[in-house]
Automatic annotation (TrEMBL):
The keyword Zinc applies. SMART domains: LIM (SM00132). This is Uncharacterized protein. Keywords: LIM domain, Metal-binding, Repeat, Zinc. It comes from the Eukaryota.
Length: 354
């Protein structure tokens, strides 16, 4: 872990510890672990961690410790609470971020506490899995969720990402517990480019994802795409020019590139212009748009008859006579043996402004 990242995390963790509402912070970390739930006897610490998958137990210098660090950064993004970790913000955005962060700490943030479930009591039902927690079991309690609410240690996880809540830090909202990242996203959109929460009045939305207006740019050339036509590929926007240069497909019939404004047919890795001239029977040129067709040897045909004729034609170089000889006696077209309908690809339309 780079030094500045480590320093940032220490700050972050102490910040969360100051603000969280743990009922008992008196415990000290046992030296084998990078972190332990506070207030437990050593055998209870062992009992707690034995409930978790081995690779998620934060032993010092283990995959579990690296998992914990990754989760700290992922679940509690520093830029969700402090403007100094954000890309330059407008004054208004800084104010909104501060309010947002204060409000979440005041109303939603908590830290789970770990206790033995009292042996004298009949037990409880885990909020996550619905199974029994018996007297003598170790359980996690979250006071924001009400005093009866408890979880198995392995069940204390974010509703959205289903990861174990790192260091038991949770955000409670409407009966559910979330990690910091997903609680923030529950309230506000997150920019796909900079990973920061969007406080501006307007943003760009495409395919259910959001961007700051200033960050909705071509992934290749970084040209701003607000108000422009663009194409989404693997959740990233491209300007038409870059998309065409990088990803345009070539038509199997005419050999020309298929422009992003042109309709395209695709089947098993082959592409055609969605026109009668290009997407048609190789043998008789019958247009096949929206019709079943018979793929054979990388070519498409309207019928079994044409597909046989096609083979003969390329072998004998005499399409007409081969076709004539192969036509069914009663003159009706034989039905295709393996009909397939190509799906057509539609490109993203203009972006929607919220
Ligand atoms: Zn459970
Ligand atoms: Zn989450
Ligand atoms: Zn952004
Ligand atoms: Zn571009
Ligand atoms: Zn073509
Ligand atoms: Zn045909």
């Amino acid at each position: 872990v780079p030094v500045d990242l480590e320093r940032m995390m220490c700050r972050l963790i102490s910040d969360f510890q100051r603000h969280s509402i743990s009922d008992d912070d008196s415990g000290c970390a046992s030296e084998d672990y990078a972190w332990v739930p506070p207030g437990l006897k050593p055998e209870q610490v062992y009992q707690f961690f034995s409930c978790l998958p081995e690779d998620k137990v934060p032993y010092v210098n283990s995959p579990g410790e690296r998992y914990r660090i990754r989760q700290l950064l992922h679940q509690l993004p520093p830029h969700d609470s402090e403007a100094q970790y954000c890309s330059p913000l407008e004054e208004e955005e800084k104010k909104e971020l501060k309010l947002f962060s204060q409000q979440r700490k005041r109303e939603n943030l908590g830290r789970g506490t770990v206790r033995l479930f009292p042996v004298t009591i009949t037990g409880a039902i885990c909020e996550q899995c619905g199974k029994q927690i018996r007297g003598g079991d170790i359980a996690v309690f979250a006071s924001r969720a009400g005093h009866g609410a408890c979880w198995h240690p392995q069940c204390f996880q974010c509703t959205t990402c289903q990861e174990l809540l790192v260091d038991l830090i949770y955000f409670y909202q409407e009966g559910k517990i979330y990690c910091g990242r997903h609680h923030a996203e529950h309230l506000k959109p997150r920019c796909q480019a900079c990973d920061e929460i969007i406080f501006a009045d307007e943003c760009t939305e495409a395919e259910g994802r959001h961007w700051h207006m200033r960050h909705f740019c071509c992934f290749e050339c970084e040209e701003a795409l607000g108000g422009q036509r663009y194409v989404m590929r693997q959740s990233r926007p491209y300007c038409c020019r870059c998309y065409q240069a990088l990803y345009a497909e070539y038509c199997d019939a005419c050999g020309e590139p298929i422009g992003i404004n042109q309709g395209q047919m695709t089947y098993e890795g082959q592409h055609w212009h969605a026109t009668d001239a290009c997407f048609c029977c190789t043998c008789c040129r019958l247009p096949l748009l929206g019709k079943p067709f018979l793929p054979k040897g990388g070519q498409i045909f309207c019928s079994r008859g044409c597909s046989l004729g096609g083979d003969e034609a390329s072998a004998s170089d005499s399409c007409d006579s081969a076709l004539h000889g192969l036509r069914p006696q009663d003159g009706r077209r034989a039905p295709p043996r393996h009909p397939a309908v190509a799906r057509s690809i539609s490109f993203a339309d203009r972006p929607l402004f919220l």
